[in-house]
Known about the structure:
The structure is a homodimer. By secondary structure, chain A is α+β, with helices and mostly antiparallel strands. Chain A is built from 28 helices and 14 strands. Chain A has a 4-stranded mixed β-sheet. The first copy, chain A, has a 3-stranded antiparallel β-sheet with strand order 2-3-4. A 3-stranded mixed β-sheet of chain A has the order 12-13-14. Chain A is elongated. At the A-B interface, helix 3, helix 11, helix 12, helix 20 and helix 21 of A face helix 3, helix 11, helix 12, helix 20 and helix 21 of B. Chains A, B: It is a multi-pass membrane protein.
Amino acid sequence: MDHHHHEQGSKDIESMEGAWRSIERNESSFYENEKESESAREPLLRKRTLNTTSQIAIVGANVCPIESLDYEIAENDLFKQDWRSRKKVQIFQYIVLKWTLALLIGLATGFVGFFNNLAVENIAGFKLLLTSTLMLEHRYITAFLTYGGINVVLAAASAALCAYVAPAAAGSGIPEVKAYLNGVDAYSILAPSTLFVKIFGSIGGVSAGFVLGKEGPMVHTGACIANLLGQGGSRKYHLTWTWLRYFKNDRDRRDLITCGSAAGVAAAFRAPVGGVLFALEEAASWWRSALLWRTFFTTAVVAVVLRSLIQYCRGGNCGLFGKGGLIMFDVSSSISTYSTADLIAIVFLGIFGGVFGAIFNYLVDRILRTYSFINDKGAPSKILLTITISILTSCCSYGLPWLASCTPCPADLHEQCPTIGRSGNFKNFQCPPGHYNDLASLFLNTNDDAIRNLFSGGTDNEFCISTLFIFFIAVYCLGLVTYGIAIPSGLFIPVILSGATYGRIIGTLLGPVSDLDPGLFAVLGAAAFLGGTMRMTVSVCVILLELTNDLLMLPLVMLVLLISKTVADSFNKGVYDQIVKMKGLPFMEAHAEPYMRNLVAGDVVSAPLISFSGVEKVGDIVLALRLTGHNGFPVIDEPPFSDAPELVGLVLRSHLLVLLKGKRFTKERARTGAGEVFQRFGAFDFAKAGLGKGLKLEDLNILQEEMDMFVDLHPITNRSPYTVVETMSLAKAAVLFRELGLRHLCVVPKTPGRPPIVGILTRHDFMPEHILGLFPHLHSHK
Amino acid sequence: MDHHHHEQGSKDIESMEGAWRSIERNESSFYENEKESESAREPLLRKRTLNTTSQIAIVGANVCPIESLDYEIAENDLFKQDWRSRKKVQIFQYIVLKWTLALLIGLATGFVGFFNNLAVENIAGFKLLLTSTLMLEHRYITAFLTYGGINVVLAAASAALCAYVAPAAAGSGIPEVKAYLNGVDAYSILAPSTLFVKIFGSIGGVSAGFVLGKEGPMVHTGACIANLLGQGGSRKYHLTWTWLRYFKNDRDRRDLITCGSAAGVAAAFRAPVGGVLFALEEAASWWRSALLWRTFFTTAVVAVVLRSLIQYCRGGNCGLFGKGGLIMFDVSSSISTYSTADLIAIVFLGIFGGVFGAIFNYLVDRILRTYSFINDKGAPSKILLTITISILTSCCSYGLPWLASCTPCPADLHEQCPTIGRSGNFKNFQCPPGHYNDLASLFLNTNDDAIRNLFSGGTDNEFCISTLFIFFIAVYCLGLVTYGIAIPSGLFIPVILSGATYGRIIGTLLGPVSDLDPGLFAVLGAAAFLGGTMRMTVSVCVILLELTNDLLMLPLVMLVLLISKTVADSFNKGVYDQIVKMKGLPFMEAHAEPYMRNLVAGDVVSAPLISFSGVEKVGDIVLALRLTGHNGFPVIDEPPFSDAPELVGLVLRSHLLVLLKGKRFTKERARTGAGEVFQRFGAFDFAKAGLGKGLKLEDLNILQEEMDMFVDLHPITNRSPYTVVETMSLAKAAVLFRELGLRHLCVVPKTPGRPPIVGILTRHDFMPEHILGLFPHLHSHK
């Protein structure tokens, strides 16, 4: 083992430990210098850990270690051996399994999505039915206490699940899935416990009447299901286990989780094409045509499952699950030809939608930072915060309708007025018979039903303008304060809800001068808000089309989305990108930052480099593994084995641990060759386990006399890692790193005669915080 | 200049020319050995040119040179200088221009698409009106002669345009656009003359009643428009020229052409979302989120333009352009809940659709190979072939309806029967009043109207089963023989037409046992055929949804597409991939072939390598440029300038030509530095011109005394080309090459002490024909 700045001979452990101590000293002083440059827009983690290269992240209000994923194929001898011996039947097994898994992911996500809706419809329906029965009996206080009490109990239960069982399940989950698909694996974000809490926490949260959605959690749920199925459930099922070994690598896992997140969107919105596009536009960082097809297959399965289950429920077998279940808004208002004045109105709708969206993103960021201090204090304060917000929400949704006056029911109606059952456009509330309270129709309903009411066409005067104003302000503010509490909470529904109200306000105001339906304006308003916060275009457009089942409004939706996204982009980033950054997840952007052109790869490599000889002393390996957290080490052959120092390749920590566990050591420094290793190990012994599941250094039990023995690293060394020359611009190196999905990028010297490797670039070396920390003067070039 | 196997000293031109002669000898003997391995599935070019590495391609029946595109940023001194001096205002200009170009592409493609439809509707409408008027007067022979005569004249005119003006405009154009977006530029495929012929040839071809579509040509038209606008039209417009210089590189051109091809699909089908997905799934090889948005903007503009123009035409200002213009089939048949029996029928529909699609692809391939011998003989034989097919088509469409018996008009109809005007479901043909000929309704109509008739719902007994059988066989065969003649011809319409007939046959047969409408079966049949031939899934699905405006059939369409694609994939490749391969376009697949794992990069590099010194003699450069067709040369610094031979980087042919044209030579071998070059050149002097537009070697006028002078190559050398070690597996090198969109990939030696570069990999070195030519034993591993 060898720090390459040392000379060849001096390899004693003492000097190495000394070197390490000095590095640690340097680092701590480095971080202390960093302290002064804190600001409100920085990742939350910097304040907590003083670690600028973000080896840990905040996942669901907790700090946890993260790992980079590696999509490079490590071409070592074992891999080559495995490749040559791979039989036709194995390739067939792989293809069959790939499609079976896609099918299973679709089935499971479809069922979970349906179960989620069924539970919400029944719990929330029961709650609302009970409240309205009490209201009819004029027992208003009891009604409020019942309503608020059920909400608080549901909220507290969800928050407790989240806080004690799986903190990673809090929040939307889309930022975490997005980061995973970019190559960042944070501990437990896709664990079975997270899946469990995500499903039941989401049911509780939505039933508790919060202004939040089940769409984001469904995406996370889909990803968790995909991860779980890819692991084969548990080690107990030996039959599938042998087949599933093909999926024990980051590349196949990534594909499965892409399918899972698309399935999640498809299940949440009943939008199979929208799901594919969402995965493509927002979630995935890498994409290829073959994956498009597999994702499409998964979402098609979801659509079929949902359709069959809804068909089954039409028979009245599902309790209170009526037409309300699974949002699907048949707007189908015939669009009359729109005038120029309408177009101008729509342009303004888009512009202000963008502004509101940007403000929303800014405020979400600030509120999340504030909440993080509360959530830091532990599980009880998380639950307390959730209960506070729940009480606030209950007060709003029960209290504000008293401000609205009663409206007499319109004469020519197909539906009951006032509404008797659970859902419907005309809630009675405090009004005399034959009248309805339009604000209660929005507040005392599930969010899905409220959106359906807002989108409904041919109901121009159902909501008066003051009602819409009150509802807009309440929903916009409640949506802001709700995201960030410790329950699974999606952002789609709050954004659609406030956007639809905003659109309907505009539509109602324009009523006298426009031929367009206020329901159509509500759809356009929702599009404007979605464009302004999430900055998605094609997928939002297709999701809205599939929700409203009206293709003719496509050009208008497109126009609004383009305008609102453009406007909002001039203020800040999309809400998911913002959350990814705030959580400290080291996300690699698709494009290199401009200042990276002025740096070269050699400028940012982390020194000092720890490298191994081709045949290395066991003790040195163990020491290096113990002292560093590095996951890849260069292997260098030196004069007895080669003419001059020569880079053999890169060896991974996980492979080293497996090799050491095998204990095929030799007394002498001699090459044993690959044959020896093949006798001991099969190719899949080195397959990559999921995060936290692989061997750990503590699992090794190396005897003292073995520490002085040698082991040949050649067979497990990746002989051809991707390399760049130290003088390559950092921007070009970043493109290489990102496009190929690397975990380690070796930097080699430009001129001959120097040690054969300068350093290793990892994901953290490309992070703006790291680079700007090293070169503060670049801030001005930014 | 230096062949690296030579020793340092011997650099005389004689020895180099000797070397070259020996290479040429080797190559010719190599190609002669290749001759024996010909087969029917090989690229056509191999037979013609004996060039296995396909430096030329067949574009529209003519052989033409091709060039690889280069998406790597060549980081030489000039680029760095330019980057540092780039001002905020220039970045702003670039962004404004980017969006303006997207807008212009959308507008232009929308207008052209509308013009295309308008012309076809009027020409074909006039022809059909004239024919039916003559038929009503019982002048059957005159009617046939008029009908056939007009067809032949239109066909001959289109073929003449194609054969004499722009041979590249023949065929669909989608394979060429796909290859361009993969990085292959064949001469004149995006030229203004091609655009002209594509537009007018397509109008002629569609009006002539061929079984072909305008959809493929529209994609090519969109790409041509994008290319033309990106070039700024001509050098005359100096105002835009200075701004457009930012787009003089392959990367920005690629983005524009992606937008253009999406706009083409959007204009052809009025399917903006489908256009984006088509560009993503089928056309583009590289993709990123930002491009998704720009493409979406372009297609939105197309949709708005088309909508406005159709609105204008509703006023009756467009001649015969009625509801027939621009396919848009409002099926909107209410889907009754389907039974298990229906599902089984649909599964079989998908399976046989896949089989028919695979057979179609196989036969298209064989027929194209046969036609290529005819088309080879020159323009007159191309025109003759077209006229023959035209007469055959006329005979079928006028002759076959005589086989059908007359059907009495159904009683309860909203539309006229028999049809009086141009389009309509009930053509009178030879029948007495009050009757219609159902086969004539399909044949004597535009293809768009025939599809609309087949898709129409609630018309269960309009077509009898024998009619559908005759039409299916005729259309399937005519579609096959039509593709490949020298006119712009798309494959979408023939495939949809025969698929819809096939589906309607199944629907009619199942009529007694199924509740589903035969019109719905026609849509599903079209989906099955599209899946079976083109192998697209998501985009076809969305295009069909946007065409039929019925979202509820989505799960069924998905199911059919998945089945038919899976079935067809087990037989052969998609039709566009097949044509790309046959034309000899060196397309880089997204995944590496399995046998590439058994080879290393060093195995396939083309020897011998020609390299330059950092300061090189002008005469040697000129000679190397003259003797080789290489586009990149490594630059190596040698002992007077460095300690040991050291790779400086890569210099491009186009940059060398500009440098030589500048004539800043020195008498002595000395480094002049970058300053000298900056005085003479601006950054954009080295910007890449379009294919065939850059400087040529013949444009240089180097005097004899200048030949012995020296020029410093350092300022124009790309200092950090991407490199791989010679021992890296070819599969990994291919992934790097493809993902980064490279043109040259430098292979460096593994061990120190050897010349600093082993060779350069180009696109042709990764082609299966080249590799399997070098290593024939790999055929067995395939």
